[in-house]
From TrEMBL:
It comes from the Bacteria. This is Corrinoid adenosyltransferase. The keyword Zinc does not apply. PANTHER family: CORRINOID ADENOSYLTRANSFERASE (PTHR12213), CORRINOID ADENOSYLTRANSFERASE MMAB (PTHR12213:SF0). InterPro entries: CblAdoTrfase-like (IPR016030), CblAdoTrfase-like_sf (IPR036451), PduO-typ (IPR029499). Its EC number is 2.5.1.17. Keywords: ATP-binding, Cobalamin biosynthesis, Nucleotide-binding, Transferase. It catalyses: 2 cob(II)alamin + reduced [electron-transfer flavoprotein] + 2 ATP = 2 adenosylcob(III)alamin + 2 triphosphate + oxidized [electron-transfer flavoprotein] + 3 H(+); 2 cob(II)yrinate a,c diamide + reduced [electron-transfer flavoprotein] + 2 ATP = 2 adenosylcob(III)yrinate a,c-diamide + 2 triphosphate + oxidized [electron-transfer flavoprotein] + 3 H(+). SUPFAM superfamilies: Cobalamin adenosyltransferase-like.
């Protein structure tokens, strides 16, 4: 098997149902999701030991689901019944966020991305996820998309924020507060 195909040498790529230019909004959207998936893989590699078994498993599940998101966005035309991402995925993310948030200290001020190495990578995941969300929104302005992908990506950035804080909490590394932030959160979020 040869990895190179030469079919993209003119700046086009195949999507499900046709060919588009590599800078097409569809390719930008699923390409950014693919980039996010790589950072999630880095986070998985850093989530070592028994204290992160649950997080590692959840992140591996997220990686599978990010492939599903990309697949749903790669279709030029598809019937809704063919979509892989449905409401059960983003609803489960909400449950995960609630579960992990119970471990986190009270949040009163904005925090800086960082703390432990694992938390720092999870914050990178969060910011790349937000960029992916913007790309999906842009695509949705141009064509019909699976709205559940957008909801999933939106919840996923909340998940990354929460588990970045959980990683710090489990490692007993405090979140670093933004020094010029006034108290903006009055309770445990």
């Amino acid at each position: 098997m040869t990895i190179y195909t030469r079919t993209g040498d003119q700046g086009q790529t195949s999507v499900i149902g046709g060919r588009v230019y590599k800078d097409d909004e569809r390719v930008e959207a699923y390409g950014t999701i693919d980039e996010l998936n790589s950072f999630v893989g880095q986070a998985v590699s850093l989530a070592e030991g028994e204290k992160f078994t649950d997080l590692r498993e959840d992140l591996l599940q997220v990686q599978q689901e990010l492939f599903d998101c990309g697949s749903d966005l790669a279709f030029v035309k598809i019937k809704e019944s063919k979509y892989k991402v449905g409401p059960e995925l983003w609803q489960r993310l909400e449950q995960w966020v609630d579960r992990y948030e119970q471990e986190n200290p009270v949040l009163e001020r904005f925090i800086l991305p960082g703390g432990s190495q694992l938390a720092a990578v999870l914050h990178v995941c969060r910011t790349v996820c937000r960029r992916a969300e913007r790309r999906v929104v842009t695509l949705g302005h141009q064509t019909e998309i699976n709205e559940d992908v957008l909801k999933y990506i939106n919840r996923l950035s909340d998940f990354f924020f929460t588990v970045a804080r959980t990683a710090n909490a489990r490692l007993q590394v405090p979140d670093v507060e933004y020094v010029r932030s006034r108290k903006v959160f009055g309770h445990k979020s």
